[in-house]
Amino acid sequence: MPDDAVTEPDPIDLPDWDTGPRDWPMAASSLRATVDAPTARRATRLADLQSQVRCLIQRARHQKLRVLLGVLNRIDQEIAREHAQGSADLSRLNRLIRYFDRLVQHLQKTQDDTPEAIALYTGSTDVPEVLEDSLRRSGFGAHPINLENPDPALLEHTGLLIYLAQDDADHEREFSQLADLKKRMSACAQSLMISQRDDFAIRAAAVRAGIDHVITYPIDSARLNTLLTGARAYECDDEQITVLLVDDMATAGMYWRKQFARANVRLLFETRPQAAFDAAITEQPDVILLDLYMPEMDGVDLARIFREHPQLSDVPILFMSTEERDQHRLEAKLQGGDDFLNKSIAGDDLIRMVRYRAQRYRQARAERRTDSLTGLLNHRAITNLVDSELDRAIRQEQPLSVVMIDIDNFKSINDTHGHPSGDRVIRRLSTLLNTRLRKYDGVGRYGGEEFLVVLPATEIDAAVELIDRLREQFAEIAVTTEAGDTIHCQFSAGVAGYPEHITPQEIINAADGALYSAKQAGRNQVKARHYED
Question: CA dihedral in degrees (239, 116, 55, 185; nearest 10)?
């Protein structure tokens, strides 16, 4: 355990407000009153403010208000900076609280629990259609920004900066300006370059400018969607990750559990190899931390066991030990470890390391489960979701609806307007489904122009009503073809579910049968398949 271990006080709870949007203005007013209190000492104001903010972080996390959570985390970081360094005034803190207040007003006015996240773009005014669709799907609103005279408020609160590189641009000058912008943005904001060029020189220039990710044409939709999803996670830097720590010393678990808890890291701690293996299979951690030397089995052998299991083969494994011999460290990494950390590592550094490793692991896992054109779940992932949600429905005695959707006359669209236009239709439908359904609903591309939707805790009749509204909305969407023509498309859908059907394949087959009935009845409609049908 590090020598500088400290005990942090528990956060002070706020008044027992309800959890609806109308109560957040009260929270914002409380923050403003605290920071502006004329009679309170500076240190007292900061301490009171931090207690309130940390309580609000817990509330926002519980309610899954990701944008509010991101700003609250930035306020918390700014308070910590003021505690450590101090400034002539609290102007930056005041600006963050005012921005939080504006978001809260949006929340109250729209009753929308996901206020629009900000994505800035520069370099070109011509935003690729696939980027527009992906931004909407990820919850970003795109705002142009002038490199010569950027809006400081937008810079301070953006979650993503996109550079649309043009072939005839002065890249050296623009990259210099981008590097300056990055310094003025939040530390957790991400940056992305989309370029027609794909060569070493422009990639090297992007790295020097601090650009986090580079995508070249033709744009890989799956990777783009994965990066945008990751940017939302970075924006609030608070998505919970799960870490499995295996160490024979119980004090190590006690210490790291307290350190990780303040960073929203869920720690699983085991002292015995068999229990650690069982926990890894059951809980599916994002990162595994292994002590190198343990009495029953050393960490190297346990890492090899983890690596041999298909569910754990790609999970990052970090050895933690006081071992200083380079040869022993090398052998440990060759046997399945991804990195080697000293046990005396500072808590903040280990938290940063496990978050980085978890982020990379989740991105790689998401890419394997994602359809390349739409960014939705692919065939295997969506069918696996039907299986897992059916298990949940049976355990919780809840209904489950599964919907099979097929775009009407899609072959004719491809034959008449070309396959790129057909791809646009598919992306528009995927965006509609992804942005209109609940966060915990599942949406996947089943194949070709077919989509599969999983609706937990939803009766079949309610699912039919919902999908029928989406059918009407899709018919109103104008899609521009490659030739510049405007077309409107429709879809047919079939709905089935549990408890009428009791196995995953039975449910999918029943939904497919209902879809066939909708096609036979004239298309552009939704049919349900009940058990008696």
Answer: 80
The predicted-structure confidence for 188-231, as pLDDT tens digits, reads as follows 678 899 998 888 988 998 898 888 899 998 887 777 877 887 67
| pLDDT tens profile 495-515 | 999 999 889 999 999 999 999
DSSP string for 226-246: HHHHHHHHHHHT---EEEEEE
How far apart are alpha carbons 354 and 348 in whole angstroms?
A: 10
Supply 54's token pair.
């940390």
Please report which confidence band the pLDDT of residue 6 belongs to, taking 50, 70 and 90 as the band edges.
very low
Give me Rg for the CA atoms of the chain.
26
The continuous run of DSSP H or E covering 44 comes out as helix 42-63
Instruction: Compute the distance between CA of residue 135 and CA of residue 120 in angstroms, rounded to an integer.
Output: 11
Helices 419-436 and 410-417, packing angle to 10 deg = 130
Number of CB atoms found within 10 A of residue 16's CB: 5
Angle in degrees, 0-180, between the axes of helices 42-63 and 66-84, rounded to the nearest 10? 160
Q: What is the largest CA-CA distance in the chain?
A: 76
Tokens read off for 79: 């308070």
Are 321 and 342 in contact, with CB atoms under 8 Å apart?
Answer: yes
Taking CB atoms within 8 Å and a gap of at least 24, the contacts of 86-94 are 90/35, 90/42, 93/35, 93/49, 94/35
Q: Is the torsion defined by CA of 426, 427, 428, 431 positive or negative? A: positive
Residues designated as active site: 449
DSSP state of 163: E
Is residue 358 within 8 A of residue 367, CB to CB? The reply is: no
